[in-house]
Amino acid sequence: MTLTIWNESTRGELNGALPVALVVLPTAAIEQHGPHLATGHDTFMVAHIARQAAERAAGQADVVLAPVLAFGSSAHHLPFGGTLSLRTETYLHVVRDLIESMLACGAKRILLLNGHGGNHELNQLAARDIAIELSPESGVVLSAASYWDIAREALAEDEVAGGLTLPGHAGQFETAMMLAFDPLRVRQRVERQADPSATDVVPGVRVETPDRWESFDGYTDFPHRATAEQGEVLLERVVGAVAEAMVALARR
User: Is the overall model pTM greater than 0.70, yes or no?
Assistant: First the structure.
């Protein structure tokens, strides 16, 4: 069982690896993450999680790790500055083009591993729409998930993650993981007594307003409570769960 890094490999190496491996395409964003996290947070984090999980999964399955798609659907963050966003339609076209390129190269199993909330539904749509266009005889399996959803059950069983907003945005969850991964990328954090992003809404209903993100300064919950020790536990749970998912998908 092997781990192949797409952009470090030759065409011949990829031609041999792709038909029998799970291809992982991490998707992310360059966008504002409050006053305390870098705009590349989602890209740094999903790249780290994908690489760590792929290395673990390679003990039981063949994995090809593609480069991170660093630009995502982030128009809701444009008012704050520091954000590079693709339009919804553009992002869908880009992801579809990448999937179709992988299939043309011989890939049979693909996982879109997402690290930015704005991409979540779009990745699922791209995977679904391409799958229904293919013949059953193709043997292709397309999948899409955000890393926090893959790890949600594992995190729920750990008291360190208890009460955290998952994933939030530049909140305690993301800040803690970055403190564990690369603390130099975390700036000074403002202490909050209450979470301005928490509003009374109808359960199960997604509510959007024109000024929603501005109303809580573009980041959620309580990043000042995050610690590196907490982040280490969260990262371990996430990487472990994602690795297990990669193995399961590779065996489909």
Answer: yes
